[in-house]
Amino acid sequence: MNNETFRNKTKIHRTWTSEIETLKEVSKRSRKNGSFLLSILLFAALFSCTTEEKADGYGNFEATETTVSAEANGKLEFLKVEEGERLDSGNIIGMVDTIQLYLTKQQLLATRATAASKSGGVRSQVEVLNQQLKNANTERQRIQNMYNDKAATRQQLDQANNQVEVLRKQIQSTEAQNAPIVGETKAIEAKVKQIDEQIALSKIINPLRGTVLTKYAEPGEIVSFGKPLYKIANLDVMELRVYVSQKQLSEIKIGQKVNVKVDGMEAMKEYEGTISWISSQAEFTPKIIQTKEERVNLVYAVKVKVKNDGSLKIGMPAEMWINH
């Protein structure tokens, strides 16, 4: 038995002795007044208050809350969420109007088709010139052979060479005309992809499985990028944030099982919890939080994960009990 435990038991013993002496006096008087039963009940009440234990930590339940916001501008066509409703991850639960985006995309597609038509015409010209160049090279080779056999003149060979060079320059010039058209087509395709991305962002997709806590918008409202639509949180596992003193830190560790108790109709309702986080820095005792030891200026925050059976709510007060 350590010194602190001995002092506590001695203090309790003295308290009991004082209370018993008081009750003896009350009992003597109550016998005269016929109230002996009342004195017995009073003794039981005082005895129970004297032996009542305190929890190792007090706090409130929390949950990670996520605010889902609009990622597009326009009228909110529909939003299928209600407060208290459970949603699955990946479900499409809303849509922002996409008519203007659709019309812009159709205009871009028409412009791209026109540019593609121009590019196709240029490519056809290049193909014709390439065929002419092929024929010119064949003719030049034939004249070169004849010239070697002294069956053709130098003038005929020069004309054949000039014809090949002219066709090559025409091909280069025609291909140069196609370069801006190709660049325009690529720019239009990039804009179409941008529009497709905006249309995709117009779909409101629920990011996580959880319960809707608050709804901020209604169908028919005009929303803009970043406007909150609803708040959701996963309430399957709740976190109890409690505060403990420095002396209690040696009794707890991450992963440790503890008991969590909340107020019930007739008695405290008990849950199994797991310590998931212990603050590395001390902070001043919050005014609304009680600790095991009185007059403690600095405490450490601790989070305890508790599986929710549907009864635990955000902000609900609870107690943490360490299994000694």
Protein described:
- The protein is of the alpha+beta class and 324 residues long.
- The chain has three domains: 53-63 and 235-322, Efflux pump adaptor protein, beta barrel domain (Elongation Factor Tu (Ef-tu), domain 3, Beta Barrel); 65-96 and 203-233, RNA polymerase II/Efflux pump adaptor protein, barrel-sandwich hybrid domain (OB fold (Dihydrolipoamide Acetyltransferase, E2P), Beta Barrel), CATH 2.40.50; 99-201.
- The protein is built from four helices and 15 strands.
- The chain has helices at 3-33, 36-50, 99-148, 154-201, and strands at residues 57-62, 65-69, 74-79, 86-87, 92-96, 203-205, 210-215, 222-223, 228-233, 237-244, 257-262, 269-278, 283-284, 298-307, 317-322.
- The strands form three sheets. It has a six-stranded antiparallel barrel. Strands 2-9-7-4 form a four-stranded antiparallel sheet, with no helix packed on it. Strands 6-5-3-8 form a four-stranded antiparallel sheet.
- Helix 1 (3-33) runs antiparallel to helix 2 (36-50) and helix 3 runs antiparallel to helix 4 (154-201).
- It is elongated, with a radius of gyration of 43 Å.
- Residues 1-13 and 33-51 have low confidence and may be disordered.
